[in-house]
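stage 2 :: seqdesign
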């Protein structure tokens, strides 16, 4: 889509991370004034890839509504203003994580609510894990949606699979768009009959040369791959190509998973399939033990760039970080830019 020169929409991207949402909205033609995040490691990546959008490094709990206005020049009751709140979602995720570590993030929707209430923007977008809706009372979603509707916003939200919105993953997300300046609700159109797959995005035919586990790419393309132990390489050698799983070596004396009783995530150590969507690209996609992150054919996990591409970041989006693990966290935590672009496109089409 060509940028819509006639719209004057502008946005603030709360919890912006490395800039997936900002980039996608900008591609649609929305002017993202700033992104807010408390992780300083994201600043360089965000600002270099999103020129013109300022990275405001701060703890959202310590940022006042008035100070945000001073930093960005935004005003109350602006019909052309969009607030986006894609807060960290580990607390509400079904993935087994230490909930104590992520407990501080569980009230971020409520904090975002305060900014919406104070500034009364024309549009509001929220993107998160489905758990925020399943526990909508505890997460603050019921109160938030109730407030929006009381203020006259047209609200639409749903649990969606991003594979129907231009993303080559089975990635289920909670998505909400609210508008108080349009007569009808806003939501991107689906591509239910166009299922994107792994082979549409990665592989040698898409510019990803064959590499080995542990390969380090010092260029900005960053086709870097995590190292694997000798045992894990042998496990992948025994795993059938194009979608195989650990079941083929489950009973192998030297390769079987110790202390594994058959419960838990059965995709761990599996390979992706060329003709299916990728699994959800998480922050741990560099590790074959954390999901079906094995390359469809090569004896390795997918690379940094492959993970970013499956998240729909363009190949010239450069990630700046001190470690591949930190880069993977940036990528896995991001809103896929293509879905963000479609959100922006839907808002623009309804507002002009």
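stage 2 :: out
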């Amino acid at each position: 889509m060509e940028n819509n020169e006639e719209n004057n929409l502008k946005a603030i991207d709360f919890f912006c991370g490395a800039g997936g949402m900002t980039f996608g909205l900008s591609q649609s033609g929305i002017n993202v004034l700033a992104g807010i995040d408390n992780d300083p490691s994201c600043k360089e990546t965000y600002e270099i890839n999103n020129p013109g959008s300022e990275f405001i490094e701060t703890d959202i709990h310590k940022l006042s509504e008035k100070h945000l206005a001073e930093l960005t020049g935004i005003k109350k009751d602006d019909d052309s203003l969009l607030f986006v709140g894609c807060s960290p979602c580990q607390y509400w995720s079904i993935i087994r994580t230490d909930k104590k570590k992520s407990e501080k993030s569980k009230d971020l929707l409520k904090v975002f609510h305060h900014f919406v209430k104070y500034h009364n923007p024309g549009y509001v977008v929220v993107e998160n894990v489905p758990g925020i809706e399943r526990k909508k009372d505890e997460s603050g979603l019921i109160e938030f949606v109730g407030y929006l509707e009381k203020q006259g916003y047209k609200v639409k939200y749903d649990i969606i699979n991003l594979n129907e919105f231009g993303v080559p993953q089975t990635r289920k997300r909670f998505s909400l768009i609210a508008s108080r300046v349009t007569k009808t609700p806003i939501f991107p159109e689906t591509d239910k009959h166009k299922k994107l797959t792994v082979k549409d995005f990665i592989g040698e035919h898409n510019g990803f040369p064959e590499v080995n586990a542990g390969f380090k790419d010092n260029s900005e393309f960053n086709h870097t791959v995590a190292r694997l132990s000798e045992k894990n390489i042998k496990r992948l050698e025994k795993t059938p190509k194009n979608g195989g799983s650990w079941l083929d070596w489950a009973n192998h004396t030297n390769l079987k998973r110790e202390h594994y009783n058959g419960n838990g995530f059965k995709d761990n150590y599996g390979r992706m399939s060329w003709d299916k969507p990728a699994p959800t690209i998480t922050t741990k996609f560099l590790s074959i033990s954390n999901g079906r992150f094995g390359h469809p054919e090569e004896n390795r996990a997918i690379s940094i760039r492959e993970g970013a591409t499956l998240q729909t970041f363009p190949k010239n989006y450069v990630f700046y970080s001190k470690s591949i693990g930190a880069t993977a966290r940036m990528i896995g935590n991001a809103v896929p830019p293509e879905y963000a672009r479609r959100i922006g496109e839907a808002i623009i089409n309804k507002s002009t």
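stage 3 :: structure notes
- The domain at 10-191+335-351 is CATH 3.40.50.150 (Rossmann fold).
- The beta strands are 10-14, 31-37, 54-57, 81-85, 123-128, 154-161, 172-179.
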